[in-house]
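note to self: dont lose this again. the chain is below, predicted strucutre after it. 196 aa total, dont forget to put it in the shared folder this time
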Amino acid sequence: EPMLQRLLNVRLLLAEAHQSGIQDLDDVKFSVEQWEKEALRERVQRAALKDVKPDAIEVEKAYRDAVKEWKLRSIKFATLDEAQVFRKAVIDGKDFGSLAKEAVDAKRATGGLEASWAGRKELAPAVLGAVQLTEAGHLTDAIKLPDGFAVARVDEIRFGESAEAKAAAEKQSVARQSKVVLETYYKQLTDSVAKV
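---
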């Protein structure tokens, strides 16, 4: 019965508003026109986007980028010169672990002793940028950090699993495709109107 009373109250309120001439007020007319335009725009967009689906290749690429993890060993030096000398020595054949241990023991550097897995969320932006460009078994260039310069070795690369990352990749794909479809649709509409 409370629901019935509520419906009666709403109908009574609407009848009183209509009887008082609220529909003839400029503010109300403007609001109704705006609502009608927005509703029409949404209907047109829904019709134009009804067949948009996520692109499988785009989704897979975005998903793999999101769940990619690197097994890293890194060492941080105070100066760029020290980082570059270390990097060159490793490239020339010296063992990363041995050189890192020597530098840490001599208090010229920090880190470098243990490899650990890290995803994009755990890495500083500068480190992520460098690591993304580095293949497994290779070194990054010297990476500028707020308190020094690091060199990282990418030991392995793997891809985790995440339902949230998959859903986000699909949503991103649909959003990108929807934008393209709407731009094309509106261009066709304006071109057809311009010809008339």
